[in-house]
Amino acid sequence: MGKPTGFMEYDRRDRHYEPAADRIVHYREFVIPLKPDQVREQGARCMDCGIPFCHQGCPVNNLIPDWNDLVYRDDWEQAIKVLHSTNNFPEFTGRICPAPCETSCTLNIDDTPVTIKTIECAIVDRAWEEGWIKPQVAHRRTGKTVAVVGSGPAGLACAQQLARAGHNVDVFEKADRIGGLLRYGIPDFKMDKGHIDRRIAQMRTEGVRFHTLSHIGVDVPVSRLQDDYDALVLAGGAEKPRDLPVPGRELNGVHFAMDFLTRNSKRVQGVFVPDDDFISAQGKHVLVIGGGDTGSDCIGTSNRHGAAHVTQVEILDKPPQKEDKGLTWPDWPNRMRTSSSQEEGCDRMWNIATKGFIDDGHGNVKAARLVTVKWEKDAEGRFQMSEVPGTEQEIRCDLVLLAMGFVHPVQEGMLAELKEKANLELDARGNVKGSTEGEQAYHTSAEGVFAAGDMRRGQSLVVWAIREGRQCARAVDQWLMGRTDLPR
C-alpha cells in the first residue's frame, strides 16, 4: 500500500447531503461529492490488512485495495480500468449500493470503514468527465446471436460482456425505455437517469441492439426468440409484489409501491402519465407498509409531492442501534439504519401488523387498523409472530403504499410458455431454477436458455444483478464457443 499508516493519519470523511428542506423540492441527485484531494486522503486510509475482507463483502469482488491505492497515488485513469475489470456499471453501484464492502472493511471493527462507495463513485464520475470511458468494440465477430430479455442491471451487464466477446446481442425490454428497475423503479433523486443513457450509448456502439415495448410472452412469443437466436438469457426482475390480503384491500387509495413510484418517475422523466392514472400524495396522510428500500423511496417521493404526513410501519422488531462486532463482522449486520428519505420526515413504527383498511363510505380508504405484534421462538427454534392483546389502533391514512417486497418473477406469459413448451423448471420459491457453479452454471432446464439476476435468485441488490449478469455471459460464451475468455 502506498500509505500503510493512512488510516491512523486521516479521519473517515464521507459525502454529505443538501439540507432536507432544499432537496425535497426537486428530484435531482442531492449528494455533495468530496473534492479530489479529499478522495485521495480517503483512499490512503485503506490499510495493509493482509486479508481484504472487502473482496468477500462485495458481490462483484471489486479489487478495492488496488483502486484505493491508485487513487491515493493520483493514477485515476488506471483506477477506472481496475474498477471496470469487475464492475460494468460502477456509477450505478456508487450511488445505490448499500455498500456491504464497507461493512466487511477491517476498519469497520472500530466503526470507521474506508469510504469505499464514495471512492468508487468518484473514480467513475471523473473517468466520464475526462473521456477515459470508451466503447470496447470486439475485434472479431463470432456470428452467434443472443437474445437478452430484460434491460435491468443483470441484462445490461450480460449483454455488454457478450457483445465484447463478439456475439450479436439483442436486448428486449417491455417498457418504453431501457433500464428496468433502474429506470422507473428507483427515484431520480437517488440516481439521475443520464447515467443509464450514457451507458446505453456506449453499448450501442459496441454492437448491442435494444428493443423497447417488446413484452416477451405477451406481445412477442418467446418461441420466436428461441427460433431466431442461438441462445436466450432471461434477465427480467422479480416483479410479483407481495400483497396484503386483509379486509379493505380493494379500497381506492391502496396501491402497490411500485405502481406509485413508476408513475412518478415517468412524469419526472418527461413521459406522459394521465392525471387519472397518476398516484399523488399531495396533501395526503400516507401510510407506507414495509421498512425496506422501496418503502424509503415511497417516503422520499411522498414528501416531494407535498404529503401532509407520512408514517412507515414495519412488522419486524426494531433493530439495535449498534451491532455486536464480535458476533457479526465481517458479515452484514442487523442494526438500525436511517435512509436519506427517512431523514426528510416520517414517523416510523416497528412490530406493527396491518389488520385491515377502513372505508370512508365512498369506497376510499380513510384509516388502517393496526396491531402490535411480538416475535418469539417456538420449541424448534423458529420465530413465530403473535398479536399483543389490547394493542389494536387506528391510524388515519388516505393513501396506502404496499412496500413489502417481491415474491418471484411474474410467471404469466413468458415463463408459462417456456414451462409448457420447453420444460422450464422453477424452484420452490417460484424463481427460474438454475445454479451458479459447475458446468451448468446459469443454465436452465430448457436447452439454450439461461437465467441471471432477480429472475434466478429472487429480489436482491443491483450489485448482485451485475455479478450474475457477468457470470451468465461467461456461461453463454462457453456454451456457444466451447471456450471463453470472459472473466467471472
Structure notes:
The protein has 488 residues and is α/β, with parallel strands linked by helices. Helices cover 35% and strands 16% of the residues. The chain contains 20 helices and 18 strands. It has helices spanning 6-9, 20-23, 36-44, 53-57, 64-72, 76-84, 90-96, 100-104, 116-130, 153-164, 181-185, 194-205, 222-228, 257-268, 293-305, 325-328, 340-343, 414-422, 454-457, 462-481, and strands at 16-17, 31-32, 145-149, 168-172, 209-211, 231-234, 240-241, 254-256, 285-289, 309-313, 347-349, 352-359, 365-377, 383-387, 393-396, 399-402, 406-408, 449-451. The strands form five sheets. The protein has a five-stranded parallel sheet, with helices on both faces. Helix 5 runs antiparallel to helix 6 and helix 7 packs antiparallel against helix 9 (116-130). The longest helix is centred in the C-terminal third of the chain and has 20 residues, at 462-481. It is globular, with a radius of gyration of 23 Å. The mean pLDDT is 97.
Briefly characterize the structure.
By secondary structure, this protein is an alpha/beta fold.
Beta strand count:
18
**Which parts are unreliable, with pLDDT below 50 for 5 consecutive residues or more?**
none
Structural class estimated from helices and strands: alpha/beta
Helical residue percent? Answer: 25-40%
Strand content: 15-25%
In round numbers, the mean pLDDT is 97
